[in-house]
Every structure is written in structure tokens, then in C-alpha cells.
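Retry 2 of 3 after timeout on previous attempt. Resubmitting C-alpha cells to design endpoint.
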């Protein structure tokens, strides 16, 4: 009597293999998404809706806390690594401190301008307000020796951010964008000049 051979079903590699998509780097995931949308154009609308929902998750208070942490992270070791004599010349402590602080705040400013460039103006305003609030909270130095080297940094950086938001520099849309006066009254009571920097009337009662 001939024994019947047991039939074997091919096993799925997905069942016993690690999830490849979860292990992709960000640029690799972007390439996969581009390839998927190229093959299935009908998914583009859904993908854009998901992207918009992800980018819309902006919390002013979260941005402010992150800005504050970024600006207060440095100590004298960081400053000494920049200041002093180098092969290209001598760097003053206040110059080195300014460079560190500018590098710390740059990602937040870039995030704001990216959102503006994508037409997400409401979300960009939330980032702008978060940056301003974070700068406002460290305006007195907050006991930080690096900020004490450049006490003008919070004000000057805030003016620059307001200029970008209002459309005076960098991102230009042909119209001026406003800073909500109620935001200034509630969160930046000592910075009413912010409204003037944005081309608005500094009317605390308006």
C-alpha cells in the first residue's frame, strides 16, 4: 500500500519574518510611499489627508516647552568648546553663545516656514506662537549663563520670527499675517512690541 505524501502548503514569509516596513529609515519609507502612490494614484487624496492630519498636530505649549528646553540645554562646557582661540581665529564668548542659541532655535523656525510653505497657516501660527512664548519665558536669562552672555537674544530672535510670520522676510505671500492681540495680552504681556513688529497696532484693549 503506497503511503500518501502529506501535502505542504507554502508558508507565508510575513508570518515568521520581522515587519520590513517597521524597520525602514525615514528616507526609505518616503521612497516606498512615493512608489506606492506612483502605482496607485487613487490613494493620493487619502495619503494627503493623513499627512495633513499628522502635520496639524501642533501644540503651542508643547513647542514653547521644547524651545525653552533647547535654549537652556547649554552649559559652560558647550561654550568653552566654541569660544576662545581656534585655528581660524579667536571667538568671543558672547559670539559663541549666540551661535549655540541660534542653532538651537533654527529647527523650530524651519518647522514654521515649512508649514507656511505647505499652506498650513493655522498650524504655522501655532508654531510661531510657541516659539515666541518659549523665547519670552527665557527673556530674563532664567539663571542660564549662556543666555546671560547674549541677553538680547530672546528679543532679537522674537523680532526675526515675527518678521518671518508677518511676511516681511523669507516667506512672502503678498499679504501680511497678523499675530492675535489676545495671545500677546495673555502670554507676552511685556512684549506688546510684537504687534508693532508684525505691522499691527499695539493696542492692549483691542
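Retry 2 succeeded. Sequence:
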Amino acid at each position: 500500500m503506497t503511503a500518501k505524501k502529506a501535502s505542504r502548503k507554502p508558508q507565508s514569509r510575513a508570518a515568521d519574518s520581522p515587519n520590513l516596513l517597521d524597520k525602514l529609515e525615514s528616507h526609505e519609507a518616503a521612497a516606498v510611499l512615493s512608489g506606492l502612490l506612483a502605482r496607485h494614484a487613487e490613494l493620493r487624496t487619502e495619503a494627503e489627508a493623513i499627512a495633513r492630519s499628522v502635520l496639524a498636530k501642533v501644540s503651542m505649549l508643547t513647542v514653547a516647552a521644547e524651545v525653552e528646553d533647547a535654549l537652556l540645554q547649554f552649559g559652560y562646557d558647550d561654550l568653552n568648546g566654541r569660544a576662545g582661540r581656534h585655528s581660524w581665529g579667536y571667538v568671543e564668548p558672547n559670539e559663541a553663545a549666540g551661535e549655540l542659541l541660534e542653532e538651537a532655535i533654527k529647527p523650530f523656525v524651519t518647522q514654521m516656514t515649512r508649514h507656511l510653505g505647505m499652506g498650513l497657516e493655522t498650524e504655522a501660527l501655532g508654531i510661531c506662537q510657541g516659539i515666541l512664548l518659549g523665547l519670552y519665558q527665557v527673556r530674563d536669562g532664567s539663571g542660564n549663563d549662556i543666555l546671560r552672555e547674549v541677553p538680547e537674544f530672546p528679543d532679537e530672535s522674537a523680532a526675526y520670527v515675527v518678521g518671518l510670520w508677518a511676511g516681511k522676510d523669507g516667506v512672502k505671500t503678498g499679504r501680511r499675517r497678523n499675530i492675535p492681540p489676545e495671545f500677546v495680552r495673555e502670554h507676552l504681556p511685556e512684549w506688546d512690541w510684537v504687534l508693532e513688529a508684525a505691522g499691527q497696532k499695539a493696542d492692549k484693549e483691542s
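Attempt log closed. Residues 169-173 have pLDDT under 50 and may be disordered.
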